[in-house]
Amino acid sequence: MKIGMVCYPSYGGSGVVASELGKQLARRGHEVHFITYELPFKLNKFYENIYFHEVEEFQYPVFKYNPYTLALANKIVSVTRHFNLDVVHVHYAVPHSISAYLAKQMLKERNLPVLTTLHGTDITLVGAQEEFYEITRLGIEVSDGVTAVSQSLARETRKMFGIEQEINTVYNFIDKDEYKRLPLSGLRSRIARPEEKIVMHISNFRPVKRICDVLKSFELIQRQVPAKLLLVGDGPEAGVMEKYADKLGLNDKIMFLGKQESVVELLSLADLFVLPSEKESFGLVALEAMACEVPVIASNVGGLPEVVKDGEVGYLAEVGDVATIAAKAITLLQDEALRLQMAQAARKLAIEKFNVELIVPEYEQLYLKVMKMVS
Ligand code: GMT
């Protein structure tokens, strides 16, 4: 198939999923055309069967805001015509599904099938805003097929917009050969003493991630267990959290590593991963940790219970329940046999439920379905 892939190219779960999906589809012989404003950061080398089409910025004095939605629609039209695309798959409802719909209207000579994947914040944070509610609903309704990355997100979307439309759950996925625990490296001994456990959190440091809960629970953990906290990523909360670590007097035990490329190498150092988000439609990073044999303690929200099996691969705690996060972490970090058992179970679940080999064919089937629908 010739597939148009529309996504946000910057750091963030939806762009990562789109890029990884594109790579997998290309490997399976499909031609994948990324259409976005920048080369997605996960596609920074040559991949056979992958093409990139940049939506260029157009400045004009009367445009106070650059009409990206329209420029993207136009680009989808030209790429579809030139490369004879069979289907367009947009990631993130706003504005991508609207641009694809406009492109569909402009392509009078053919019927372009559009599949929209909802990733979470497009619904729970953007679509929930009054300013974007109706346009998000329209984007969903005019798509030929819609997927959500968890059952929870599919339910929430139907409820929020009062729609009956079918929303297929297609889980995010992991490549088990890429995401696997690396052998112990010298790095660990440079970061922590042998008796110290490593607790890790990776995110884009937005308020929704509740990084203060990571710090608060770590403060309780380190009273009972010798430990280091590694914080990976960057974003609006980073500065505030650095000050908070200072206030807690934990500067020598908390490392802010900023944005990092080699997440697998870092996850391979971790004994425990903490993800106490306020909202999380799936929690791709939790899955990445699990694949690298790291038990996860996550909040009991959104799609996280579908990824983190409570009591089997880690634990769930209610949002903001720092005491429970700390208590569960201490239990796990003080019982190495239990921690290892959960680490193994985490990898097993990641492979059995979220394996790339299982999930990518689900998208292929949906492409065929929407192509058949519009033909
Ligand atoms: O919250 C993020 O880290 C970024 C956000 C995004 O918009 O890219 O991630 C969303 O999509 C990811 C990929 O499907 C999911 O794993 C995240 O759970 C989801 N984030 C939220 O729902 C808050």
SSE topology:
Layout: E1 2-6, H1 13-27, E2 31-36, E3 50-54, H2 68-83, E4 87-91, H3 96-106, E5 114-118, H4 121-127, H5 130-141, E6 145-148, H6 151-161, E7 168-169, H7 186-191, E8 197-202, H8 211-224, E9 227-232, H9 238-247, E10 254-258, H10 263-267, E11 272-275, H11 284-291, E12 296-299, H12 304-307, E13 314-317, H13 322-334, H14 336-354, H15 356-374
Parallel strand pairs: 1-2, 1-4, 2-3, 4-5, 5-6, 6-7, 8-9, 8-11, 9-10, 11-12, 12-13
The site of ligand GMT has 17 residues, from helix 1.
Could you name the key traits of this structure?
375 residues, alpha/beta, Rossmann fold, 2 domains, seven-stranded parallel beta sheet, six-stranded parallel beta sheet, 13 strands, 45% helix, elongated, binds ligand GMT
